[in-house]
Amino acid sequence: MLSRADWITGAAVVLLACGDDPFAPTVENMAGSYGATTFTTTNSGTTTNHLAAGASFTLTLAADGTTTGRLFVPGGDEGGGDFDADLAGTWTLTGKTIEFAHTADTFVRDMPFTAERNRLRGTATFSGTTIRVVLAKG
């Protein structure tokens, strides 16, 4: 017969082995200010780290469903100039997916982000270029 301590230890091992994160995103716990910790593109096997090249990506999600923020990519505009976008707009949460709507023509409004504890994660491919972004709450 198992002792109480053995039963508790066994239950803890089973819970840890499941690996399920009990985090359930809500508008309230996802609201806050985020900054990019990962921002890369991969095209034809070549990956570019845009943060290392001077890019920045900040986004604030308000509990009322509005956003503010900025996406800046040096040399990222079609004509070779700097790309600088105002990310004022709105955000919605459905399950664990966050989607954005703003006037600026950026990948952000076309890429669903996965809501994680203190983090937003997005990956999408556009015209053969894969964009990966991780935004950390801070």
Key traits:
138 residues; mainly beta; Lipocalin; eight-stranded antiparallel β-barrel; 2 helices; globular
Structural class from helices and strands? mainly beta
Helix content: 10-25%
Number of H- or I-type helical stretches: 2
CATH class: Mainly Beta
Number of strands: 10
CATH architecture assignment:
Beta Barrel
Strand order of the largest sheet: 1-3-4-6-7-8-9-10
**Average pLDDT number:** 89
Describe this structure in words.
The protein is mostly beta strands and 138 residues long. It has a single domain, classed as Lipocalin. The protein has an eight-stranded antiparallel β-barrel. About 9% of the residues have low confidence. The termini are far apart. Helix content is 14%, strand content 49%.
Topology (SSEs and partners):
Blueprint: H1 4-18, H2 27-30, E1 32-43, E2 46-49, E3 56-61, E4 66-73, E5 83-86, E6 89-94, E7 97-102, E8 113-116, E9 119-126, E10 129-137
State the gist of this model.
The protein is mainly beta.
